[in-house]
Amino acid sequence: MGPATTGVSSTRRRNWAPLLGLILGSAGVVLYALAIYGLGAYMPTVRNDGIPSWLLIGAGTLLSFVGVRRAFASRRSGGRAIAGIALGANLIFGALLAWVLYAMADLPTIRGPQVGAPAPAFALEDHTGGMVRLADFRGSPLLLVFYRGHW
């Protein structure tokens, strides 16, 4: 007869959760960088709210946390450091995204002119290169529209 079997598989299962979590978290950072620098004018919701990035980083953090739990539940200690690094990286990704969205872009409030006050005199170049002055329209209705622009 052959050797006795105990019913326990000798094959080791890899703990892929931390690596997948790190990939998802990194994808969230890359997506937000693309939204800011490449597609910001076309995707203002992604740029201003970062919801897809939040979802990716959140899913990555959750997977990394699962990976840490699995690493500490197993008898081997080899994957604990990698799982901890992945979880820490995703937490840093989330903190940086929060800082960029909510702290870095927060500008101080500047008081504008009072409602009904006359506009200050200014002159701008029109599309033909000629100068147009606000005073040129005195006495006639005028609507001024200022665009924030992304060019």
Low-confidence sequence ranges: none
Strand count, sense and closure of the main sheet? Answer: 2 strands, antiparallel
Residues in helix, % = 40-55%
Q: Within the largest sheet, what's the order of strands?
A: 1-2
Query: Helical element count?
Result: 4
Summed over residues and divided by their number, the pLDDT gives a mean of 81
Distance between the termini: 80 Å
Query: Rounded to an integer, what's the Rg over CA atoms?
Result: 28 Å
Percent of residues in beta strands: under 5%
**SSE order in H/E notation?**
HHHHEE
Q: What spatial form do the alpha-carbon principal axes imply?
A: rod-shaped
The total beta strand count reads: 2
State the secondary-structure class: mainly alpha
How does this model look, in words?
- This protein has a domain of 88 residues.
- Helix 1 runs antiparallel to helix 3, helix 1 runs parallel beside helix 4 and helix 3 runs antiparallel to helix 4.
- The N and C termini lie far apart (80 Å).
- It has a two-stranded antiparallel ribbon with strand order 1-2.
- It is built from 4 helices and 2 strands, in the order ααααββ.
- With 151 residues, the protein is mainly α.
- Strand 1 and strand 2 form a beta hairpin.
Topology:
Blueprint: H1 17-37, H2 44-49, H3 51-73, H4 80-104, E1 123-125, E2 131-133
Antiparallel strand pairs: 1-2
Helix pairs in contact: 1-3, 1-4, 3-4
Q: Quick summary of this structure?
A:
This protein has 151 residues and is mostly helical.
List keywords for this structure.
151 residues; mainly alpha; 4 helices; 2 strands
